[in-house]
Design a protein that fits this description.
Layout lengths: L2 H18 L5 E6 L4 H16 L3 E6 L3 H14 L6 E4 L3 H8 L7 H6 L2 H4 L3 H6 L1 E2 L2 E2 L1 E3 L7 E5 H5 L9 H13 L3 E4 L4 H15 L1 H8 L4 H4 L2 H15 L10 H9 L3 E5 L4 H7 L8 E5 L13 E3 L6 H15 L1 H11 L15 H12 L13 H16 L5 H14 L4
Parallel strand pairs: 1-2, 1-3, 8-9
Antiparallel strand pairs: 3-11, 4-5, 6-11, 7-9, 7-10
Helix pairs in contact: 2-15, 2-17, 10-11, 10-13, 10-19, 13-20, 19-20
Bound molecules: beta-D-galactopyranose.
The site of beta-D-galactopyranose has 12 residues, from helix 3.
Protein backbone atom coordinates (compact mmCIF):
# COMPACT_ATOMS: atom_id res chain seq x y z
CA UNK A 1 0.00 0.00 0.00
CA UNK A 2 1.49 3.42 -1.01
CA UNK A 3 2.45 5.84 1.72
CA UNK A 4 -0.41 8.19 0.79
CA UNK A 5 -3.05 5.47 1.04
CA UNK A 6 -1.58 4.22 4.32
CA UNK A 7 -1.70 7.75 5.80
CA UNK A 8 -5.34 8.18 4.66
CA UNK A 9 -6.31 4.80 6.13
CA UNK A 10 -4.55 5.74 9.38
CA UNK A 11 -6.37 9.12 9.54
CA UNK A 12 -9.72 7.47 8.87
CA UNK A 13 -9.23 4.80 11.53
CA UNK A 14 -8.08 7.45 14.02
CA UNK A 15 -11.18 9.58 13.42
CA UNK A 16 -13.47 6.54 13.59
CA UNK A 17 -11.78 5.54 16.84
CA UNK A 18 -12.21 9.05 18.17
CA UNK A 19 -15.91 9.15 17.18
CA UNK A 20 -16.59 5.64 18.37
CA UNK A 21 -14.90 6.12 21.68
CA UNK A 22 -16.14 9.70 22.28
CA UNK A 23 -16.96 9.08 25.93
CA UNK A 24 -20.46 10.20 26.87
CA UNK A 25 -20.16 13.11 29.30
CA UNK A 26 -22.44 12.95 32.34
CA UNK A 27 -24.48 16.12 32.86
CA UNK A 28 -26.25 16.43 36.18
CA UNK A 29 -29.49 18.30 35.42
CA UNK A 30 -31.61 19.79 38.21
CA UNK A 31 -35.27 20.71 37.76
CA UNK A 32 -38.51 20.64 39.74
CA UNK A 33 -40.65 18.83 37.19
CA UNK A 34 -41.97 15.94 39.28
CA UNK A 35 -45.73 15.87 38.64
CA UNK A 36 -47.15 13.32 36.17
CA UNK A 37 -47.22 15.69 33.21
CA UNK A 38 -43.94 17.41 34.07
CA UNK A 39 -42.09 14.09 34.50
CA UNK A 40 -43.40 12.86 31.14
CA UNK A 41 -42.19 16.07 29.52
CA UNK A 42 -38.72 16.22 31.09
CA UNK A 43 -38.19 12.57 30.11
CA UNK A 44 -38.29 13.78 26.49
CA UNK A 45 -35.41 16.17 27.21
CA UNK A 46 -33.42 13.39 28.92
CA UNK A 47 -34.02 11.08 25.95
CA UNK A 48 -32.83 13.73 23.49
CA UNK A 49 -29.65 14.52 25.46
CA UNK A 50 -28.80 10.80 25.76
CA UNK A 51 -29.45 10.36 22.00
CA UNK A 52 -27.01 13.23 21.34
CA UNK A 53 -24.19 11.12 22.82
CA UNK A 54 -23.98 12.48 26.39
CA UNK A 55 -25.72 11.30 29.52
CA UNK A 56 -28.50 13.13 31.38
CA UNK A 57 -28.07 12.45 35.10
CA UNK A 58 -31.47 13.38 36.51
CA UNK A 59 -31.46 15.69 39.53
CA UNK A 60 -35.21 16.15 40.07
CA UNK A 61 -36.09 18.18 43.19
CA UNK A 62 -39.69 17.63 44.30
CA UNK A 63 -41.82 20.40 45.80
CA UNK A 64 -42.05 22.89 42.89
CA UNK A 65 -40.08 26.07 42.44
CA UNK A 66 -40.42 27.40 45.96
CA UNK A 67 -38.43 24.45 47.32
CA UNK A 68 -36.10 23.86 44.37
CA UNK A 69 -34.98 27.44 43.60
CA UNK A 70 -33.15 28.01 46.91
CA UNK A 71 -31.45 24.59 46.62
CA UNK A 72 -30.32 25.29 43.05
CA UNK A 73 -29.11 28.78 43.92
CA UNK A 74 -27.17 27.66 47.01
CA UNK A 75 -25.35 24.99 44.99
CA UNK A 76 -24.43 27.44 42.23
CA UNK A 77 -23.44 30.23 44.64
CA UNK A 78 -21.75 27.73 46.97
CA UNK A 79 -19.35 26.36 44.33
CA UNK A 80 -21.01 22.95 44.03
CA UNK A 81 -22.86 23.47 40.77
CA UNK A 82 -24.86 21.01 38.70
CA UNK A 83 -24.15 20.68 34.96
CA UNK A 84 -27.44 22.33 33.96
CA UNK A 85 -30.55 23.55 35.70
CA UNK A 86 -34.10 24.42 34.73
CA UNK A 87 -35.11 27.80 36.13
CA UNK A 88 -37.43 30.72 35.51
CA UNK A 89 -35.86 33.91 34.13
CA UNK A 90 -35.95 36.92 36.40
CA UNK A 91 -34.19 38.81 39.14
CA UNK A 92 -32.53 35.89 40.96
CA UNK A 93 -31.14 34.38 37.76
CA UNK A 94 -29.92 37.76 36.47
CA UNK A 95 -27.93 38.33 39.68
CA UNK A 96 -26.12 34.98 39.26
CA UNK A 97 -25.49 35.68 35.56
CA UNK A 98 -24.01 39.09 36.40
CA UNK A 99 -21.78 37.36 38.96
CA UNK A 100 -20.29 35.36 36.07
CA UNK A 101 -21.60 32.01 37.29
CA UNK A 102 -23.19 30.84 34.04
CA UNK A 103 -21.71 29.62 30.76
CA UNK A 104 -21.89 32.28 28.03
CA UNK A 105 -24.07 30.93 25.20
CA UNK A 106 -23.73 34.01 22.96
CA UNK A 107 -21.62 32.32 20.27
CA UNK A 108 -23.90 29.27 20.13
CA UNK A 109 -26.97 31.52 19.95
CA UNK A 110 -25.39 33.44 17.06
CA UNK A 111 -24.28 30.28 15.24
CA UNK A 112 -27.77 28.76 15.51
CA UNK A 113 -29.51 32.09 14.80
CA UNK A 114 -31.68 31.94 17.96
CA UNK A 115 -32.46 35.67 17.64
CA UNK A 116 -34.11 35.04 14.28
CA UNK A 117 -35.71 31.68 15.05
CA UNK A 118 -36.97 31.81 18.64
CA UNK A 119 -40.21 33.63 19.31
CA UNK A 120 -41.56 35.67 20.98
CA UNK A 121 -38.45 37.84 21.18
CA UNK A 122 -39.17 38.32 24.89
CA UNK A 123 -37.96 34.80 25.70
CA UNK A 124 -34.40 35.20 24.40
CA UNK A 125 -34.43 38.74 25.78
CA UNK A 126 -35.11 37.22 29.23
CA UNK A 127 -31.87 35.24 28.81
CA UNK A 128 -29.79 38.19 27.57
CA UNK A 129 -27.84 40.56 29.82
CA UNK A 130 -25.64 43.33 28.39
CA UNK A 131 -25.82 41.66 24.99
CA UNK A 132 -24.70 38.25 26.22
CA UNK A 133 -26.91 35.13 26.25
CA UNK A 134 -26.80 33.12 29.51
CA UNK A 135 -29.72 30.71 29.18
CA UNK A 136 -31.62 28.77 26.58
CA UNK A 137 -35.41 29.31 26.56
CA UNK A 138 -37.28 26.02 26.12
CA UNK A 139 -40.94 27.03 26.12
CA UNK A 140 -43.44 29.79 26.46
CA UNK A 141 -45.80 29.01 29.26
CA UNK A 142 -48.71 31.02 30.53
CA UNK A 143 -49.96 31.04 34.09
CA UNK A 144 -53.36 32.42 33.10
CA UNK A 145 -55.59 29.35 32.56
CA UNK A 146 -58.79 28.00 34.12
CA UNK A 147 -59.35 24.25 33.92
CA UNK A 148 -62.89 22.84 34.27
CA UNK A 149 -64.32 19.34 34.40
CA UNK A 150 -67.20 19.37 31.89
CA UNK A 151 -69.02 16.34 33.32
CA UNK A 152 -69.34 17.98 36.77
CA UNK A 153 -71.43 20.74 35.16
CA UNK A 154 -73.43 18.68 32.64
CA UNK A 155 -74.37 16.14 35.36
CA UNK A 156 -76.00 19.07 37.19
CA UNK A 157 -77.73 20.34 34.05
CA UNK A 158 -75.34 23.30 33.95
CA UNK A 159 -73.53 24.74 30.94
CA UNK A 160 -69.76 24.28 31.35
CA UNK A 161 -68.46 27.79 32.22
CA UNK A 162 -66.91 29.93 29.50
CA UNK A 163 -65.17 32.19 32.02
CA UNK A 164 -64.58 32.88 35.70
CA UNK A 165 -67.85 34.84 36.00
CA UNK A 166 -69.84 31.79 34.82
CA UNK A 167 -68.06 29.71 37.49
CA UNK A 168 -69.00 32.25 40.18
CA UNK A 169 -72.63 32.05 39.02
CA UNK A 170 -72.64 28.22 39.11
CA UNK A 171 -70.90 28.00 42.51
CA UNK A 172 -74.03 27.85 44.75
CA UNK A 173 -75.42 24.83 42.85
CA UNK A 174 -72.02 23.09 42.87
CA UNK A 175 -71.64 23.64 46.63
CA UNK A 176 -75.17 22.30 47.20
CA UNK A 177 -74.05 19.02 45.59
CA UNK A 178 -70.86 18.86 47.66
CA UNK A 179 -68.60 19.78 44.74
CA UNK A 180 -65.79 22.28 45.37
CA UNK A 181 -66.39 25.05 42.81
CA UNK A 182 -62.71 26.03 42.74
CA UNK A 183 -59.81 23.81 43.88
CA UNK A 184 -56.76 25.72 45.15
CA UNK A 185 -53.22 24.82 46.25
CA UNK A 186 -51.34 26.72 48.93
CA UNK A 187 -48.33 29.02 48.50
CA UNK A 188 -47.34 30.37 45.08
CA UNK A 189 -50.54 28.92 43.56
CA UNK A 190 -52.53 31.53 45.52
CA UNK A 191 -50.32 34.30 44.12
CA UNK A 192 -50.77 32.85 40.64
CA UNK A 193 -54.56 32.84 41.12
CA UNK A 194 -54.63 36.47 42.27
CA UNK A 195 -52.28 37.62 39.48
CA UNK A 196 -54.60 35.90 36.99
CA UNK A 197 -57.65 37.60 38.53
CA UNK A 198 -55.97 41.02 38.35
CA UNK A 199 -55.21 40.44 34.66
CA UNK A 200 -58.72 39.09 34.01
CA UNK A 201 -60.57 41.88 35.81
CA UNK A 202 -58.22 44.88 35.46
CA UNK A 203 -56.36 43.97 32.24
CA UNK A 204 -52.66 43.37 31.56
CA UNK A 205 -51.77 47.08 31.39
CA UNK A 206 -53.06 47.76 34.92
CA UNK A 207 -51.29 44.59 36.10
CA UNK A 208 -47.91 45.67 34.69
CA UNK A 209 -48.35 49.31 35.84
CA UNK A 210 -48.56 48.09 39.45
CA UNK A 211 -46.18 45.10 39.42
CA UNK A 212 -43.47 46.63 37.22
CA UNK A 213 -43.93 50.40 37.40
CA UNK A 214 -44.92 50.34 41.09
CA UNK A 215 -47.97 52.57 40.48
CA UNK A 216 -49.03 52.74 44.15
CA UNK A 217 -51.93 55.12 43.43
CA UNK A 218 -53.37 52.55 41.02
CA UNK A 219 -52.71 49.69 43.49
CA UNK A 220 -54.57 51.52 46.25
CA UNK A 221 -57.19 53.14 44.02
CA UNK A 222 -60.69 52.24 42.78
CA UNK A 223 -59.66 49.95 39.92
CA UNK A 224 -57.88 47.61 42.33
CA UNK A 225 -60.61 48.05 44.93
CA UNK A 226 -63.02 46.48 42.42
CA UNK A 227 -60.45 43.74 41.69
CA UNK A 228 -59.97 42.91 45.38
CA UNK A 229 -63.77 42.79 45.80
CA UNK A 230 -63.87 40.22 42.97
CA UNK A 231 -60.99 38.34 44.59
CA UNK A 232 -63.15 38.27 47.73
CA UNK A 233 -65.98 36.70 45.69
CA UNK A 234 -63.57 34.07 44.35
CA UNK A 235 -62.34 33.39 47.88
CA UNK A 236 -65.94 32.64 48.84
CA UNK A 237 -66.09 29.72 46.37
CA UNK A 238 -62.85 28.13 47.67
CA UNK A 239 -63.16 25.63 50.52
CA UNK A 240 -60.39 26.94 52.81
CA UNK A 241 -60.29 23.54 54.57
CA UNK A 242 -59.58 21.74 51.27
CA UNK A 243 -56.60 23.84 50.10
CA UNK A 244 -54.03 21.30 48.83
CA UNK A 245 -50.27 21.26 49.47
CA UNK A 246 -49.12 20.84 45.84
CA UNK A 247 -50.51 22.48 42.69
CA UNK A 248 -51.01 19.12 40.92
CA UNK A 249 -53.18 17.83 43.80
CA UNK A 250 -55.62 20.68 43.13
CA UNK A 251 -55.62 19.86 39.42
CA UNK A 252 -56.22 16.19 40.34
CA UNK A 253 -59.42 17.16 42.24
CA UNK A 254 -60.79 18.56 38.94
CA UNK A 255 -59.63 15.50 36.99
CA UNK A 256 -61.42 13.25 39.52
CA UNK A 257 -64.60 15.39 39.44
CA UNK A 258 -64.32 16.31 43.13
CA UNK A 259 -63.86 19.95 42.16
CA UNK A 260 -65.37 21.81 39.21
CA UNK A 261 -62.44 24.08 38.32
CA UNK A 262 -58.85 25.02 39.07
CA UNK A 263 -56.90 28.15 38.07
CA UNK A 264 -53.32 27.14 37.20
CA UNK A 265 -50.68 27.55 34.49
CA UNK A 266 -50.63 25.56 31.27
CA UNK A 267 -48.52 22.90 32.97
CA UNK A 268 -51.80 21.64 34.49
CA UNK A 269 -52.63 20.63 30.92
CA UNK A 270 -49.95 17.96 31.20
CA UNK A 271 -51.87 16.39 34.10
CA UNK A 272 -55.09 16.16 32.06
CA UNK A 273 -53.10 14.56 29.25
CA UNK A 274 -51.58 11.95 31.58
CA UNK A 275 -55.17 11.28 32.75
CA UNK A 276 -56.01 10.69 29.06
CA UNK A 277 -58.70 13.38 29.08
CA UNK A 278 -59.67 15.26 25.89
CA UNK A 279 -60.12 19.04 25.86
CA UNK A 280 -63.54 20.16 24.64
CA UNK A 281 -64.95 16.76 25.59
CA UNK A 282 -63.82 15.84 29.14
CA UNK A 283 -62.41 19.21 30.24
CA UNK A 284 -62.08 22.81 29.10
CA UNK A 285 -58.98 24.99 29.15
CA UNK A 286 -59.83 28.70 29.33
CA UNK A 287 -56.89 31.03 28.66
CA UNK A 288 -57.09 34.33 30.51
CA UNK A 289 -59.83 32.72 32.63
CA UNK A 290 -62.01 33.21 29.54
CA UNK A 291 -61.97 37.00 29.89
CA UNK A 292 -58.65 38.54 28.80
CA UNK A 293 -56.45 36.00 26.98
CA UNK A 294 -52.86 36.55 28.08
CA UNK A 295 -49.56 34.74 27.90
CA UNK A 296 -46.70 35.44 30.23
CA UNK A 297 -42.98 35.35 29.55
CA UNK A 298 -42.10 33.46 32.73
CA UNK A 299 -41.42 30.39 30.63
CA UNK A 300 -38.78 27.85 31.42
CA UNK A 301 -35.12 28.22 30.61
CA UNK A 302 -31.94 26.23 31.27
CA UNK A 303 -28.76 27.74 32.72
CA UNK A 304 -25.36 26.01 32.58
CA UNK A 305 -23.17 26.83 35.57
CA UNK A 306 -19.57 27.49 34.54
CA UNK A 307 -17.11 24.63 35.09
CA UNK A 308 -13.37 24.20 34.53
CA UNK A 309 -14.06 20.90 32.76
CA UNK A 310 -13.66 21.27 28.96
CA UNK A 311 -15.60 18.05 28.24
CA UNK A 312 -18.48 19.22 30.40
CA UNK A 313 -18.54 22.62 28.72
CA UNK A 314 -18.72 20.89 25.32
CA UNK A 315 -21.59 18.75 26.57
CA UNK A 316 -23.36 21.80 28.01
CA UNK A 317 -23.27 23.58 24.65
CA UNK A 318 -24.48 20.44 22.89
CA UNK A 319 -27.34 20.14 25.41
CA UNK A 320 -28.39 23.77 24.88
CA UNK A 321 -28.57 23.11 21.15
CA UNK A 322 -30.48 19.85 21.66
CA UNK A 323 -33.15 21.48 23.85
CA UNK A 324 -34.15 23.99 21.16
CA UNK A 325 -34.04 21.73 18.15
CA UNK A 326 -37.47 21.34 16.48
CA UNK A 327 -37.91 17.62 17.25
CA UNK A 328 -37.08 17.98 20.93
CA UNK A 329 -39.24 21.08 21.15
CA UNK A 330 -42.36 19.27 19.94
CA UNK A 331 -41.77 16.14 22.05
CA UNK A 332 -41.25 18.18 25.22
CA UNK A 333 -43.93 20.86 24.84
CA UNK A 334 -46.71 18.50 23.79
CA UNK A 335 -46.28 16.65 27.11
CA UNK A 336 -45.61 19.78 29.19
CA UNK A 337 -48.68 21.71 27.98
CA UNK A 338 -46.56 24.76 27.13
CA UNK A 339 -45.82 26.32 23.72
CA UNK A 340 -42.74 25.59 21.61
CA UNK A 341 -40.21 28.41 21.56
CA UNK A 342 -39.97 28.30 17.76
CA UNK A 343 -42.66 28.34 15.02
CA UNK A 344 -40.92 25.92 12.62
CA UNK A 345 -42.13 22.75 14.32
CA UNK A 346 -44.64 20.09 13.34
CA UNK A 347 -47.63 20.52 15.66
CA UNK A 348 -49.83 17.86 14.07
CA UNK A 349 -50.31 16.29 17.50
CA UNK A 350 -51.12 19.62 19.22
CA UNK A 351 -54.34 19.47 21.27
CA UNK A 352 -56.98 22.22 21.47
CA UNK A 353 -55.33 23.84 24.51
CA UNK A 354 -51.98 24.22 22.75
CA UNK A 355 -53.84 25.53 19.67
CA UNK A 356 -55.60 28.14 21.86
CA UNK A 357 -52.22 29.19 23.28
CA UNK A 358 -50.69 29.49 19.81
CA UNK A 359 -53.71 31.51 18.66
CA UNK A 360 -53.10 34.02 21.48
CA UNK A 361 -49.38 34.09 20.69
CA UNK A 362 -50.04 34.77 17.00
CA UNK A 363 -52.46 37.61 17.78
CA UNK A 364 -50.85 38.96 20.91
CA UNK A 365 -47.10 38.73 20.37
CA UNK A 366 -46.32 40.83 23.45
CA UNK A 367 -46.77 38.53 26.40
CA UNK A 368 -47.03 39.99 29.89
CA UNK A 369 -43.89 39.71 32.03
CA UNK A 370 -44.06 37.13 34.81
CA UNK A 371 -44.12 38.47 38.36
CA UNK A 372 -40.59 37.09 38.83
CA UNK A 373 -39.44 39.45 36.09
CA UNK A 374 -41.03 42.50 37.73
CA UNK A 375 -40.65 41.91 41.46
CA UNK A 376 -37.83 40.66 43.68
CA UNK A 377 -38.21 37.31 45.45
CA UNK A 378 -38.84 38.89 48.86
CA UNK A 379 -41.73 41.05 47.62
CA UNK A 380 -43.22 38.03 45.83
CA UNK A 381 -43.02 36.03 49.06
CA UNK A 382 -44.57 38.89 51.08
CA UNK A 383 -47.49 39.15 48.62
CA UNK A 384 -47.85 35.34 48.68
CA UNK A 385 -48.02 35.27 52.49
CA UNK A 386 -50.58 38.10 52.53
CA UNK A 387 -52.80 36.40 49.94
CA UNK A 388 -52.48 32.94 51.57
CA UNK A 389 -53.68 34.59 54.78
CA UNK A 390 -56.56 36.21 52.87
CA UNK A 391 -57.72 32.90 51.39
CA UNK A 392 -57.44 31.01 54.66
CA UNK A 393 -59.02 33.68 56.95
CA UNK A 394 -62.57 34.54 55.79
CA UNK A 395 -62.60 37.37 58.37
CA UNK A 396 -59.94 39.32 56.41
CA UNK A 397 -61.55 42.13 54.42
CA UNK A 398 -60.63 42.79 50.74
CA UNK A 399 -60.04 46.47 51.46
CA UNK A 400 -57.56 45.63 54.23
CA UNK A 401 -55.69 43.22 51.97
CA UNK A 402 -55.60 45.86 49.21
CA UNK A 403 -54.01 48.37 51.59
CA UNK A 404 -51.32 45.87 52.68
CA UNK A 405 -50.74 44.85 49.03
CA UNK A 406 -50.24 48.50 48.01
CA UNK A 407 -47.75 48.91 50.89
CA UNK A 408 -45.69 45.95 49.62
CA UNK A 409 -45.68 47.41 46.11
CA UNK A 410 -44.60 50.80 47.53
CA UNK A 411 -41.65 49.22 49.38
CA UNK A 412 -40.61 46.80 46.61
CA UNK A 413 -37.06 47.61 45.46
CA UNK A 414 -36.69 48.88 41.89
CA UNK A 415 -35.32 46.13 39.60
C1 LIG B 1 -43.14 26.93 37.19
C2 LIG B 1 -42.48 26.29 35.98
C3 LIG B 1 -43.47 25.41 35.26
C4 LIG B 1 -44.11 24.43 36.23
C5 LIG B 1 -44.59 25.13 37.51
C6 LIG B 1 -45.12 24.17 38.55
O1 LIG B 1 -42.26 27.80 37.80
O2 LIG B 1 -42.03 27.31 35.10
O3 LIG B 1 -42.79 24.73 34.22
O4 LIG B 1 -43.19 23.47 36.55
O5 LIG B 1 -43.55 25.88 38.07
O6 LIG B 1 -44.16 23.36 39.05
Amino acid sequence: MGLKKFAAALALSASLFAMGSAKATDIEVTHWWTSGGEAAAVAEFAKAVDASGDHWVDGAISGSGDVARPIMMSRILGGNPMGATQFNPGHDADEMARAGLFLDLTDLAAKEKWAEILRPKSQLASCTIDGKVYCVPVNLHSAQWMWTNRKVFTDLGLEPPKNINDLLAAAPKLKEKGIQPLALAQGWAVTLLVNDLIIAFAGTDNYVKVMKDRDVALASGPVYTDVFKKIGEVRAIVDSKAITKQWNEAAALVIQGKAAANIMGDWAGGEFQVAKMTPGKDYDCLPGLGLAPALDTGGDVFYFPKSKNADLEKAQLKMASTLVNPTTQVAFNLKKGSLPIRPDVDLAAANDCMKKGLEILDHNPNPVPSNRQMLDGESITAIGDLLTDFFSKPEMKPEDVQAKFAEIIKNAPKM
